[in-house]
Amino acid sequence: MSEMRQHTVQCLSPGGLHRMAYVEWGDPHNPRVLVCVHGLTRNARDFDYLAKTLSGHYRVVCPDVVGRGRSNWLRIKDNYQVHQYAADMVTLIARLNVDEVHWVGTSMGGMIGMALAAQADTPITRLVLNDVGPVISAAAVKRIGEYVGLAPQFARIKEAEQYVRLVSATFGKLTDAQWKHLTEHVTRQKADGGYEFVYDPGIAEPFRKAMDGEDVLLWPLYDAIRCPTLVVRGAESDLLTHETCLEMGLRGPKATIAEIPGVGHAPMFLDEAQVAVVREFLLSK
Question: pTM of the full predicted structure?
Answer without folding.
Answer: 0.97
